[in-house]
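Inverse folding, one chain.
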């Protein structure tokens, strides 16, 4: 689809192109008793100059959002900091970002990317978690066959004083069946098995899903296992399933919305379209209706 048409779709799912757009969107969500996690769009950079600039941008964002007392934290993609170019440079820049967040009593969530990145991202998380146990968390993807093993392996980092924090999502990247579950219900079942392991081991769970079935099953699990409210939250993408989101908030659970912004919105948007190809039909129909 042409970029202009993709933007028609994107406006619903992206706060905007500037930090001012992100601040405004976040404050509006805060007013609805919803916290945020801020993401500067961009990944899989081509050179380390971009990594340095991305680091500076994140330091600016942390300063701006904490100064304005926005209720939320920050999400980062390691490939934005040069993971696939120079792992140590990536670690250096990510450490600067986490250190800044720690100085502001804030928190950085390391997004999980495709399978080529998983081992390196877990390694970087381990290093950062050891130094900043209260200020860094990780994303794990339930459709990956390895995720249960990763949870078990990372449990050695978990402490009562600083519970290890994971965002659990289904998974978005296209991976071969050898390493990723493909069946719809199969992914759901593994999501719930992973979530149960997290609760059983007193890990902090970011329950990231728009699947009402998973939301209902998670709430059922929370009630049956008497999980305290300070040990979990629900998470959703900006602009997605707002009615389900509000029902979770109304039920008294913490909700955090992933708020992406920036000039590099095109790749993020096309990935959302690949997830839901029917949206392309809706975009074209809307354009004709508008005349």
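Residues assigned per position:
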């Amino acid at each position: 689809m042409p970029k202009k048409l993709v933007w028609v779709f994107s406006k619903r799912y992206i706060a905007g192109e500037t930090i001012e757009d992100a601040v405004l969107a976040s404050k509006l969500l805060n007013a609805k008793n919803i916290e945020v996690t801020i993401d500067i769009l961009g990944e899989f950079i081509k050179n380390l100059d971009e990594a340095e600039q991305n680091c500076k941008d994140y330091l600016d964002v942390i300063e701006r959002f904490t100064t304005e007392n926005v209720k939320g934290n920050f999400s980062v993609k390691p490939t934005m900091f040069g993971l696939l170019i120079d792992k140590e440079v990536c670690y250096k820049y990510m450490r600067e970002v986490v250190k800044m967040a720690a100085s502001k009593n804030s928190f950085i969530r390391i997004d999980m990317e495709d399978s080529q990145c998983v081992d390196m991202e877990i390694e970087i998380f381990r290093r950062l978690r050891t130094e900043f146990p209260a200020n860094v968390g990780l994303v794990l993807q339930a459709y990956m066959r390895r995720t249960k093993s990763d949870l078990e392996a990372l449990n050695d980092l978990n402490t009562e004083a600083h519970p290890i924090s994971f965002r659990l999502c289904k998974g978005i990247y296209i991976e071969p069946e050898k390493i990723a579950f493909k069946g719809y219900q199969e992914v759901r079942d593994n999501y719930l098995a992973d979530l149960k392991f997290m609760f059983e081991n007193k890990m902090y769970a970011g329950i990231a899903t728009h699947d009402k079935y998973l939301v209902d099953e998670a709430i059922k699990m929370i009630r049956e296992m008497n999980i305290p409210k300070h040990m979990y939250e629900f998470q959703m993408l900006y602009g997605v399933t707002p009615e389900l989101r509000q029902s979770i908030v109304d039920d008294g659970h913490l909700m955090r919305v992933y708020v992406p912004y920036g000039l590099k919105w095109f790749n993020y948007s096309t990935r959302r379209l690949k997830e839901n190809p029917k949206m392309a039909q809706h975009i074209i129909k809307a354009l004709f209706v508008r005349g």
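The first helix runs from residue 3 to 10. The first strand starts at residue 35 and ends at 40.
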